[in-house]
Amino acid sequence: MTLHALSPVEHAPAVVVTGLRRAFGERIVIDRLNLRIARGEFVALLGESGCGKTTLLRALAGLDPIQGGRIDAPRRPAVVFQEHRLLPWDTLWRNVALGLEADDARERAAAALVEVGLGNRLDDWPRNLSGGQAQRVALARALVQEPELLLLDEPFAALDALTRIRMHALVKELVARHQPGVLLVTHDVDEAIALADRILVMRDGVIAFEHPAAAWGTAAATRTTLLSELGVVIDLKTA
User: Fold this and answer.
1) What is the CATH topology of the domain spanning 86-146?
2) Which of 8, 14, 29, 216 has the smallest number of Cβ neighbours within 10 A?
3) How do residues 78-101 score in pLDDT, each as one tens digit?
4) What pTM does this model have?
5) How many helices (H) does the chain have, and how many strands (E)?
6) β 206-212/198-203 pair status
7) Domain segments of the chain: what residues?
8) C-beta separation of 226 from 208 below 8 A
9) In this predicted model, what pLDDT tens digit does every residue of 105-130 receive, in sequence order?
């Protein structure tokens, strides 16, 4: 698959997907899907397990081939996975600077670690980090590249509840500062509501439902709407 770079004139969208198709043998996972994410926009993607959420994210990242359609995106979108994927034999600053081709790589890595609250740990090792701290380093590694598109594949799923809340606040702050377009793949409806400007539900290989923040009511009403789209019906009389 080839990622087609957006021209300088088209800097507003972080990614534009047109008619995307992805299949595994005869099983079609993504079927003529369309998607547009603007710079600075935070989009959350919900859907049942196996519906193609991570397949879409991997296609956007250029990690998986596609069988049809077009992806107009930055050549190197940044990705943060559920596992931090830090190199255990490298210090934190070297992990953050991985792939960064710049004479001032250490200085830029140090600044990124400061942003995620680990500015005093440059020469520390991944083995000494908690799960939340490791994900902070993974975020720093993604954002040090100043990406136009940031892809988050359930990066907080393995964290405890309090650490997850802190990470939500940090991510919102960093996205507001750096202004990438963001696609967050998550199974957590409440996480999507807390973070996103727009929430999408994927079903049958396409974006089946779109819920922009401007159309939200209360958090409870939004949660009920999204759960209904996911096939979960709550009886409010007994809830």
Assistant:
1) ABC transporter ATPase like fold (1.20.1580)
2) 8
3) 998 888 888 999 999 899 988 777
4) 0.86
5) 7, 9
6) antiparallel
7) 86-146
8) no
9) 888 899 999 988 888 888 989 999 98
